[in-house]
Amino acid sequence: MSEREPRRYPDNSTAFEAQFSHPEIKAVYGGEIEVYDIAPEESKTEVPTIVAPGWAANAKVFQDNLRELSNRGRRVLSFGNYHGIENNLTNPENIPNTEWRKIVALIGIIESQNIDKVDVMAHSEGAIYTLLAAKMYPEKFRNIVLVNPAGFIEDESWRKLTARFAKDIGRQYLRSILNGNAYQPALNKVGRARMKQINSPGHIKIPKLAQAVKHLGPEPTLKKSLQAGRHFGLAVRRPLATLRETFAIGNQDLIDTLTELQRKGVNVSILHAASDRAFPIDKVKQATEGKIKQFKTRPGGHNEVYLNAGKYTRAAERMLTAMEKEK
Hints:
15 helices; Rossmann fold; 45% helix
């Protein structure tokens, strides 16, 4: 069977939508967590796959990715809202609260669903808390695919990181407007002209972005379009604010963690966007060389994983399958 033509499992669309629309609220560590747990009609593997979102994202942003994995015979899980959990599990390494809450949420999903071991597809900041969780509980993790991971660029600075992150998100967002999706009507003629200037080759100009936003059309407004858009409304809302809180980890070299996980039998591979401006591919590849199983590349920017969910998720799923076959 060709790698490009994975086995087709029974159509799980109806069952997926029914399960996804009814997440469970689980009591864990004295708090609550919203758990999405979708089982396919026919399973490819007994080990479930958790999708670990990055900054300001959640299961709803990655709904298409979860659906794609489910359609390929994987039981998939992710999390939505959670509260009251981070103070009821000992934080052994004084990890910043932003990451610690997500580590607890990730472990909470595994334990609340009585799962012995999981695979993980982690995006952006999701790589940080997934690797730290796997370091703490290696027995609970089998294979991990990091998509455009944070945390591997040495000598990072807060200003450089936020500037690159803003440019990458801004460029992808504007291209979506110009490609004729639901956000384009939010701008009038002058605003669209400004957007074209921004989207031209070369560096994105933040002042031009501000000029474009001034020229919003009457209805639907840009704000309403963003609120209605699953991909952008959640994923672009707060990342720059949380970047600063997690910068202590973002600047931390996670190479030792990769080495330790490899020694303990937890396989890690990386799928990286060729045009990721937030975490440039050459720097990530250099930092992780020899420490992971595979390093694969796909076109696009930092958030391409959910903007082009089918292509990226299929690639990540093939990487999980390849690591399964090695064991």
